[in-house]
User: Fold this.
Amino acid sequence: MLKLDSVHTYYGHIHALKGVSLTVNEGEIVTLIGSNGAGKTTTLNTISGVLSARAGAVYLQDTTRKAGEQHGNGRDGDIRLDQLPAHEVARLGVSQSPEGRKIFARLSVQENLAMGAFARTDADGVRLDLERVFELFPRLKERLSQPGGTLSGGEQQMLAIGRALMSRPRILLLDEPSMGLAPILVQQIFQIIREINAQGITILLVEQNAQAALQVADRGYVLETGNIVLSGAAGDLLANPQVAEAYLGI
Ligand SMILES: Nc1ncnc2c1ncn2[C@@H]1O[C@H](COP(=O)(O)OP(=O)(O)OP(=O)(O)O)[C@@H](O)[C@H]1O
Ligand SMILES: [Mg+2]
Assistant:
């Protein structure tokens, strides 16, 4: 569904991604783990079009193209996301729940959720998805009119994920969903990630909590200073002594 092919991203002359290649297949949970400053957020922001790659390509599988139609702007049947602005990437079904939550502090919970669905015209579908978000996060339903900025950290995290889901994404990019949460909430968030995936949404999960991320994921990639240094089935990475030493604190 998603493919990064040797992506290079810079901040001015700082070379943050040095040829990152990875794939996410439809229906998978794929996790990207790595230490502070490895380039995890940069990778997600490059996919979502918040940052632009200086070299390489980001492809999204094009499921809308009918047989016989002209090809997309990438390889056969793929769309080149790296040539599109962020709002176009979002419209194609790539939704990001950003690091540090980034909810609209002065808007209510209800308004924040509505912002996630702003590009949609299917009012019935939006209502249905709102109910699904409330099933995942009953707490949000109790706080509909409360300003986002006054929610607790955990509640803001729920709102950020809920808002991302309101666009009915094909693929959800989650940046550190467990950051700053109490242990009990961390377990809950990973359970919810499983549920979202079971509802048919493909997930690319960025986490510093490598243990929990690898337990929930199908496959994983390890990022070190802008390079993918290891990848494989999540179970194999969990059992890998290098990963255990560097990322699991074992
Ligand atoms: N706006 C920026 N300007 C300059 N350098 C930046 C900027 N944002 C990130 N960087 C640098 O790019 C590198 C990758 O940062 P990134 O935020 O992608 O790391 P990360 O893996 O998400 O880390 P963390 O786990 O701390 O969130 C770091 O060296 C960082 O200092
Ligand atoms: Mg980050």
